[in-house]
Amino acid sequence: MIIYIVRHASAGQHLTNPKKDEKRPLDADGIEQCGFVGRALAALNAQPDVIISSPLKRATQTASLVGNELGYEGKLLLEPALRPEATFADFRRMLDKYAKYEAIMVVGHNPSISEFLARLISKSGCEAFVDFKKGAVARVETIRHSATLNWFFTPKIAREIQLAAAAVAKKSTPKTSRK
Questions:
Q1: pLDDT over 60 at 179, yes or no
Q2: pTM for this entry
């Protein structure tokens, strides 16, 4: 199975009231990050069969915006196993639940999403560390209970690549003159 692991995009400052924090939306930077990441994933031909998100608003918004850039038309599925306080055992059970799919995208939060990625790709389960920035995405390929990290990028990297590609395209446009 291919798993696209996404950390929700920028959503401003953490709120002290847990109920209000669950409803905290993406900020303007987060919305922009989703566009860059979604377009980069589309350019990489990422085609998840299903998109699964934490039920918190900032994660569902990230999943929806990235999904829109990918042309995803399926229903967004919500899973408590992607909440910030979820355990790796919860995450593993969720993966088993969706094992029939060839490719899935999961959208969650730190600290859990970093731990899940690290434990998937490390043999001992906890020695790896990934600095999972907001809006970052990793592509992991699993076979049974082993996994390989194929690639990882942040919104900043996606943005820089898109800007560089646009500059190259602009320079390579032939200049024609009318006589």
A1: no
A2: 0.89
